[in-house]
Amino acid sequence: MLADTLEALRKINRFDRVTVVSADYAVRKIARSHGASWLWEGTRRGLNKAVRLAIQESKHKGASATLIIHADLPLITPREILKFLDHATGYSVALTPSKDGTGTNALLLHPPGVIRPDFGRDSFQRHLALADRQGVSRRVIRTRGISFDVDEPKDLRRLMRYHMRNETSRFLTEMRRWSQ
Q1: Crossing angle, helix 78-88 and helix 2-10, to 10 degrees?
Q2: Which residues pair with 38 in a beta bridge?
Q3: What domains does the chain contain, in order, with CATH numbers?
Q4: Helix locations, the chain, DSSP H
């Protein structure tokens, strides 16, 4: 799924850079093979810490905005990312909820750090509230590919119904053959 997300991002010419934050050195090879940089999150792991590190790096490199997008989005396409970016124009915070409406699968911050992201259970409502408290403009953008995340085995079964041509699809096809 990481490879699919990186490939979708690579096909868009609107990003100065794509960075994967991880503590897993094996991820570095995957990131670089898809034209992304890799940032080691260190030994103090955790999603929110990794996101804060990425935002700091983004600010340090002079970015005007930061897009935080999760890697467990097997239906993501360049077209949906472009739709997200187009609809986010002019807003300080733009976000896409997870398929169940409670999590946040994509979060655009313009400028980086305009709010302090707080991922985890019910993060979607927290991110909306953070934007409201800061008094910044925000927009919710719903797309199927960005919303569909894989959290549990039933998500993989549901995913098998889609006709995809990506790494995730090839992996699931191989798994089906192997389990028979």
Answers
A1: 60
A2: 20
A3: 2-179 (3.90.550.10)
A4: 2-10, 25-33, 47-60, 78-88, 123-134, 144-147, 153-159, 167-179
Q: Is it true that the peptide bond before 74 is cis, omega within 30 degrees of 0?
A: no
Give residue-wise pLDDT tens across range 70-87: 998 988 999 999 999 999
Rounded Cα distance between 85 and 6, Å, is 16
Selection from 19, 47, 23 nearest residue 34 by Cα: 19
* Other CB atoms within 10 A of residue 107 CB: 21
CA distance 69 to 108: 8
Residue-wise pLDDT for 34-50, tens only, equals: 989 998 887 777 889 99
Q: How many CB atoms lie within 10 A of CB 157?
A: 10
| Tokens matching residue 14 | 């609107």
Centre a 10 Å sphere on the Cβ of residue 27 and count the other Cβ atoms it contains.
Answer: 17
* Pair 117, 58: CB distance under 8 Å: no
